[in-house]
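Session log. Operator J.P. requested a structure for one protein chain; no other inputs attached. Running the standard single-chain path with token output.
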Amino acid sequence: MTRKDRLTQEIAAREADLVALTQDLIRIPTLNPPGVNYREICDYLDRRLTEAGFATEMIRAHGAPGDSDRHPRWNIVARREGTRPGACVHFNSHIDVVEVGHGWTVDPFDGELRNGKIYGRGACDMKGGLAASIVAVEAFIATCPDHAGAIEISGTADEESGGFGGVAYLAERGYFSPERVDHVIIPEPLGKDRICLGHRGVWWAEIETHGEIAHGSMPFLGDCAIRHMGAVIEAMEAQLFPALAARRTDMPVVPEGARQSTLNINSIHGGEPEQDEDYTGLPSPCVPDRCRMVIDRRFLIEEDIGAVEAEVRAVLEAVRDGRPGFDYTIRELHRVLPTMTERDAPVVAAVARAVAEVFGHAADYVVSPGTYDQKHIDRIGRLKNCIAYGPGILDLAHKPDEYVGVEDMLQSARVMAFALQDLLSG
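Structure written below.
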């Protein structure tokens, strides 16, 4: 029996444990925002990984966006040294999940197992991937206790809100430097036979239009900021959206619609603030003197970030030139450059070989439409040898009745274990 046959048997024998681990993780509601129960899930992982022979560190991201004494940003990094020198393979998973939303037919934090699927918020994105990577590593250690090099597993905060209290904070402190880590696998739900090489770029900005308050019965004495924002949206519809739709990338972005440049209007707020739900009065009659809009611009590796920003400003300037009384301010909120690991990178090659062995066909190479924590490992950590690979269907992320398939997790765990053996055997 080959070592990979023994790995396959080890993982198959751990199916019940894999299910239970995934359910336990789902049952810790690590909702972000605001960022709750981070310490609880890190403590759970600490107990599990310590029993598996890992040395663990609990790291709070003091001063990171969102960190407070009420909602501290906790992370865990676990490391197991091999019996002799070698490479370090790091499995990184985020521990936070997005809001529940409406439309669920199951309890989002029960971890219900039904027809081979585990349901719950975060099941797919990405507690199923975290559980699969832990089981893969534990099976590998049981089969190859004398392995070379080192294995790391991390559970990190705030990926859903930019990752600044998680991977970015750790990368700034050297946890993802090439001097410490050689290969990184992020078990995001991109598909069990697909290797995600990177992601598109993102530029978020807040646009505010300015007006003049006046009595609502005499709007001609004021200047409506919401109408000014309407002119901005009209100009975007006429000029910007068609231009973006015409651009295409050579990056293998999935789904197909994301191979173009996109812009999403994330929110609009204008006029009086909304009152509490128990308020029964009417709003006061006022002309709104301000209106704010947040835009989410996703751009391609072929585009320059400076041009992305200038293009939006050009639309605003064109509106100013043609609209009396129009004035605006624009403020950048967030920027991430596109990233894509080369197909011949060592971690890509190892996972590709493992996919071919497990599934009997070549891996598909994709790029994510949205960003994930590879951006920080690449830009801050200076580590290019990083991919996303994990179980789950990307389209289920952030949706009601989110689930992960048990068989998908088992097969992905085999891929991760095979790749681990490959990378630590040289």
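Operator note: The mean pLDDT is 97.
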